[in-house]
Amino acid sequence: MLEIKDLHVQFHTSDHEAVRGIDLTVQDGEIMGLVGESGSGKTVTAMMVSGLLRPEQADFRGRILLDGEDLLHAGGQRIRAIQGKDICVVFQEPMSAMDPTMRIGKQVEECLRVHTDLSAQERRQRALQALRDVELPDPEGVYRKYPHELSGGMLQRVMIAAAIVARPRLLLADEPTTALDVTIQAQILALLKRLNREMGMSILFISHNLHVVRKLCTRVAVMEKGRIVETGPVDQIFFHPQAPYTQRLIAAIPTRRKL
Ligand SMILES: Nc1ncnc2c1ncn2[C@@H]1O[C@H](COP(=O)(O)OP(=O)(O)OP(=O)(O)O)[C@@H](O)[C@H]1O
Question: Is residue 257's pLDDT more than 80?
Fold first, then answer.
């Protein structure tokens, strides 16, 4: 469903490319992983797919096809129509992505307000259902709360609820569990897996943590310095890494987690 072809990105403020000609596909219903160390270009790739980088900030070329439609050369209006409806993003720091002055329910409903003609009552019902889908206790209570009244793990669930409320085809999850403790991290990963299975939603899961990717993804692409050095089924990459960079990434995982 998503096909990135020979994508190059260079910020106007930089003298080198952040993304140097990558090819990447996400199949319908698949959880695809994108790993690599800090600065390798993962977030820039996600921002390009979600239309968050515009020509005012960076030069880019190549193709990003969503069901054959080229997003890279689509106009701002078309990008806004796709953003939040067909493609949604969940970031690492839910607090910074939320409006502290707005109740949770309104924030979860936001993309329904922008993209649908649903009535206020219908939006509320859909938002409550999304809060239930992400297994938040007391959805009605959470709906009325402000972000600072929730824990980090709960906020990340709210972010996922806001991302899935319009049933997007593709969820971009950029380090969504990095800021959470291990138990909550495992719960969020299980939640993403369930949503993928039950809603058939494709996920591009970005992480520097190969161990987490192995738990969740079917395939993985490894990124180094703006290039994809290796792509394949997750077990193949994990047990038979070909690229020296992937071998180093795996060697860096603590031993008890390798098997
Ligand atoms: N707004 C920007 N202006 C200039 N350079 C940027 C900008 N955003 C990112 N970069 C550069 O692009 C490169 C890729 O950054 P990116 O955030 O995609 O890395 P990443 O792999 O997601 O790292 P991390 O795991 O730390 O999030 C880096 O060299 C970064 O400094």
Answer: no
* List of domains in the chain: 1-86+172-254 (3.40.50.300), 93-167 (no CATH)
For ligand 1, say whether the CB of 36 is within 6 Å of any of its atoms: yes
Q: Indicate whether residue 18 lines ligand 1 (CB < 6 A).
A: yes
> pTM for this one?
0.90
**C-alpha 52 – ligand 1 centre gap (Å):** 13
- CA-closest candidate to residue 204, choices 33, 47, 1, 59: 33
C-alpha Rg value of the chain to the nearest Å: 18
Q: Are 142 and 158 in contact (CB under 8 A)?
A: yes
Query: 134-143 pLDDT, tens per residue?
Result: 889 999 999 9
- The long-range contacts involving 252-259, CB below 8 angstroms and separated by at least 24 positions, are 253/210, 253/211, 257/211
